Amino acid sequence: MSRVAGVDPGTVSFDLCVLEDGEPAVEQVFETGSLSRDGRPLLDALALQGPYDLVYGPSGYGLPLVAAGDVGERELAEMVLVRPEETGDDVGLGGMRSLLRSLARSGMPVVFGPGAIHLASVPRHRKYNRIDLGTADKVCVAAYAIVDQSTRQAIALSETAMVLLEIGGAFTAALAIAGGQIVDGMGGSSGPLGARAAGALDGELAYLLGPALRKDTLFTGGALDPDGTLRLSDMEALWSSPAHAEGWTALLEAAAKAVRGLLVSVPEPREIVVSGRIARLPELLAALAMSLADVAPVIALVPGRASTAARGGALLADALAGGRHAPLADVMRLREACGTALDYLRVAGAQTISLG
């Protein structure tokens, strides 16, 4: 009997999914803000549900399948990507480094997995000057989406093809999946406009911001909540609010552009698969279906209590542990992941980058 777990470090919530023999056994949700102050509830919940064959840990920007025992300060820095002068700040996911360090030292069989940039299935030329082609949790969502499409359509994992659109509480990201593999992506910090986050920054804006451009800047400027003051809980009310009508238009248009842009890399997707916190809104799905009707059917990837990324992480843990979903790791070429998120930078000054 195999027992594995996956953890999703979301901007709004941390989600835990435990699989037993490939099926969900436990799903729990923790508020991200509280974990930034004290990560023990998550660690205690994980320990309580063990022992495990493998835990697929929250990996930020990703590592090429590094076991917890091999994680040092350099690996922690590569997962959070923070400049040295900001290492003492609660930036981005707030307290993420401390939580990752505790998880790495927990004694549990934790592995930290890749972002899209680490995957051999993404051609090198698509990685030029990119760091965020899709963070490690987006790779987990892709794993869930691949298994889900394979099951629903009764096709082999290697026959799945889609554009995966993740519309979360802060970021929007998109991945191109062909032949059961991630072949391209637009990460949340380098892709479409998000609900709370600006997505890809105009280079001139980044230049003019200068020292004011900090890690937490990446979590601002979005279509619906540009300064991070809204609680995105009542989506129905937000959808019908005249004050946010233009924001919804911007969010939907950015998402549709991302999908159409990735058709270069996956010309014949079977579906446009939509996941994420905001993607649960029926009106949003209907609007996307209308705007992308000429491309492919739009379907929602519906999780259980925990997020799609937590479920996907657990599926990858099961695959790597040789469980029921073992073929998934082979199809996605997960074990071939390599390098760092900074390996493909070609712009002047890239060599001066240092991580704290």
Give an overview of the whole structure.
The protein is built from 11 helices and 11 strands. α3 (73-80) packs across α4 and α5 (136-153) packs across α10 (308-320). The chain has helices at residues 32-37, 40-49, 73-80, 96-104, 136-153, 203-209, 235-240, 245-262, 282-291, 308-320, 326-331; strands spanning 3-9, 13-20, 23-31, 54-57, 66-67, 110-112, 161-167, 172-178, 181-186, 271-275, 298-300. The protein has one domain (3-352): Nucleotidyltransferase, domain 5 (2-Layer Sandwich). The strands form 2 sheets. Strands 3-2-1-4-6-5 form a 6-stranded mixed sheet. Strands 9-8-7-10-11 form a 5-stranded mixed sheet, sandwiched between helices. The model has no long low-confidence stretch (mean pLDDT 92). It is an alpha/beta fold.
List the helices and strands and how they pair.
Blueprint: E1 3-9, E2 13-20, E3 23-31, H1 32-37, H2 40-49, E4 54-57, E5 66-67, H3 73-80, H4 96-104, E6 110-112, H5 136-153, E7 161-167, E8 172-178, E9 181-186, H6 203-209, H7 235-240, H8 245-262, E10 271-275, H9 282-291, E11 298-300, H10 308-320, H11 326-331
Helix pairs in contact: 3-4, 5-10
Broad structural category: alpha/beta
CATH topology: Nucleotidyltransferase, domain 5
What does the largest sheet look like?
Answer: 6 strands, mixed
Instruction: Measure the end-to-end span.
Output: 41 Å
The global form is globular
Mean pLDDT, to the nearest integer, reads 92
